[in-house]
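Q: What would this complex look like in 3D?
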Amino acid sequence: MSFDPATLTFNEAGLIPAIAQDHATGEVLMLAWMNAESVARTLATGRVTYWSRSRQAFWAKGETSGHVQELVGLHVDCDRDTLLLKVRQTGPACHTGARSCFFTKVEEGEEVVTA
Amino acid sequence: MSFDPATLTFNEAGLIPAIAQDHATGEVLMLAWMNAESVARTLATGRVTYWSRSRQAFWAKGETSGHVQELVGLHVDCDRDTLLLKVRQTGPACHTGARSCFFTKVEEGEEVVTA
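A: Here is my prediction, written as structure tokens for the whole assembly.
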């Protein structure tokens, strides 16, 4: 079946969460949001393009930072309301400079920064 | 710093997306939603408990299916608006019987079912 981004299930704002995972290490790097056009652009260009909820604009990841995400594989979940992107990440994925955005771990009730 | 679920950033429905990842293989299994009380219950019991948006009720994963998720680690992202759960998954994570919910892959414009 040919894939049409319009057949995904978007929330009331027209967005779907997209998980970015390092294709080689399996590390989960970040979660951001896409609209149908973001998904189409990502597939057409091979560069991951989110929708920035704060800026209300397309967000071609790494456009200004150079920390681009090259799409290796796109997966859709069973409910068609979440995407999993396998990516080749250049530099850190997180705006803080950390490789992954998930660098805070909860250990025995305490927050521990691991990066 | 001690961790308080109330300090997370929830959406307008009081929910935060939670990614479940197999702690051993790195496979991303599913994404579901939690409210503050789900997070607290998950930490208190060591069993992952989501909030079911369709049933509007707590969803102790595996309660009926037996396909429980034992919490191995809980990570918070930089914006405090997404959780990453490292889990020990018993049986399939997906209600379809697939190990992961992300069994549909987009390849050269076509949807390919990989499980």
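A: To summarize the key features: Strands of chain B lie at 16-22, 28-34, 49-52, 57-60, 69-76, 83-89, 104-107, 110-113. The interface with chain A takes residues 1-3, 17, 19, 21, 25-28, 30-31, 43, 73-79, 82, 84, 94-96, 98, 101-107, 109-111 of chain B (CB under 8 Å).
Q: Very helpful, thank you.
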